[in-house]
Design a protein that fits this description.
The protein is α/β, with parallel strands linked by helices. It folds into 2 domains: about 1-140 and about 265-315, 3-Layer(aba) Sandwich (D-Maltodextrin-Binding Protein, domain 2); about 140-265 and about 320-345, Periplasmic binding protein-like II (D-Maltodextrin-Binding Protein, domain 2, 3-Layer(aba) Sandwich), CATH 3.40.190. It is about 35% helix and about 20% strand. It has helices at about 10-15, 20-25, 30-40, 50-65, 80-90, 185-195, 200-210, 220-230, 240-250, 275-290, 290-300, 315-320, 335-345, and strands spanning about 1-5, 40-45, 70-75, 100, 135-150, 175, 215, 235-240, 255, 260-270, 300-305, 325. Strands 1, 2, 3, 4, 5, 6, 7, 8, 9, 10, 11 and 12 form a 12-stranded mixed β-sheet that branches. Helix 4 (about 50-65) links the parallel strand 2 (about 40-45) and strand 3. The longest helix is centred in the N-terminal third of the chain and has 15 residues, at about 50-65.
Amino acid sequence: MHTGLTRRAAIGSALALPLAGAIARRAAADPALVAAAQKEGSVVWYSTLIVNQLVRPVAEAFMKKYPGITVQYSRQTVGEVALKINNESRAGKLQADVFDGSSGIFAMIPRDLVASYAPENLADYPTEMRDPAGTWNVCNSYVYTTGYNTEMVSEKDAPKIFADLLDPKWKGKMAITTDPTVNGPPGLVGTILTSMGEADGMAFLRKLGAQNLVYVPASQRVVLDQVIAGQYPIGLMIINYHAVISAKQGAPCAWVKMEPVVESYNYLQILKNAPHPNAARLLYDFILSREGQTLFRDNDYLPSDPFVEAKDPSLKPAVGKFKSTLMTIEMAQNLPRWTQIADELLKK
């Protein structure tokens, strides 16, 4: 269940889509597109996804499937990706063809820089995961919540609800990323205000700020790693499947369904003046294809394709039966205000 301006369709509805749509997405790529992409010879992907975990496996599978096309990629935060694209565009030296990022990127990159591309073979994606105008498609989703070190905190004592974070024993012991997007403190602020209401939410945030949160200038993954290492017992806004991956490897960590968790989509887009437009379309198709989405699943991401189930479906709100605030494109318009509140109330 989701709070916020939109509600995602239940997974059962997605799986009930016509079989014809599922079959259509198994069709081979257009030979003419493949030939044109091979003539261009390369494609550049600016990504927010982890290179070793996913970007490199996807790139290698694509290059094996389409010999003669080299995938060049770089991994940065959403803000850094947006800044790089904007700078390249202003200089008239655009390097990127394809990029991905959370909903906050829509406020960072002018829409006239993005191409429209809506191939029919993506029609079985849920409507809220694809733009009717073809300027974006969701390639995966994230669930941000609270994680903890199981050697430092027992399951019984672990904070279960937001109010538990105000316990004096956690003062100065809760770490959070500095990510200035809906995936970081601004997103936490947004879900608090959305779920609690303006007055109660602001009152809670003032109390949470008095807990002296530790801002870690790194990604959510690094925050969890520091929790695992025992530097902090609690991590806020960590990605739930990261905790599952690490726990399976023997790390002392677990995640909590602190409702509503923050849910965020990762949007894949093509640049209008992409240096390699055909290779860009081919890579876009591949990432969103059954084959590409299976790579997301196999490498522990939460795929958006309704016919490719996550390794652990219960990590998603619909199957796991926990509430989430979905950070939609519309909600991300509040990012500047949420950022200001986070800086004023949570950052000490």
